[in-house]
Amino acid sequence: MQQEQASPAVQKRVRDSFDRQGLLSHLGARLAHIGPGRVHIVLPGRPEVTQQHGYIHAGATSAIADSAGGYAALTLFDEDSEVLTVEYKINLLAPAAGDHLEAIGTVLKPGRTLTVCQLEVYGVQAHGARKLVANGQQTLIRVSRNAG
Fold first, then answer.
1. Contact (Cβ atoms closer than 8 angstroms) between residue 31 and residue 49
2. CA distances from 25 to 31, 99, 103 (A)
């Protein structure tokens, strides 16, 4: 299934912002898809992101979900806008296991001020099997890029 890609300018803006995220860099996360209102972030499974039972830690799972939603919203806004998370709720549905996790943020309702996104995180096995391990909802606020 071919997914729609964001414009090259939007992809560059998202990638540039993503590259400034110290936490996601530290975790080893990477952007896998940037489309209008939809972003995928992949987190490889490795010992540094696991909890004591060997599953990927809920903090890492939540971080990539939050960022996927934020970047999904950013794809719909002009270059003078940024987004900040106001709140999010995540349900951990199953242990986060797999070769890697894939977080998908999808804009449900864009707004001038507030935007609502759906968050999904899948555990993906090396052979391609996928299991939904977390889902949630997020509210973001649009802020001016020059606001300080």
1. no
2. 11, 18, 15
Q: What is the CA radius of gyration of the chain?
A: 15
Looking at 24-68, which runs of residues are DSSP E strands? 30-35, 38-44
| CA-to-CA separations, 104 to 10, 15, 56, 99, 147, in angstroms, rounded | 17, 16, 17, 17, 28
User: Beta strands of the chain (E only): which ranges?
Assistant: 30-35, 38-44, 81-92, 100-109, 114-124, 130-144
pTM, rounded to two decimals:
0.95
Burial 64-74 (b: 16+ CB within 10 A, else e): bbbbbbbbbbb
Name the token pair of 137. Answer: 């909802």
Query: 59-114 pLDDT, tens per residue?
Result: 999 999 999 999 999 999 999 999 999 999 999 999 999 999 999 999 999 999 99
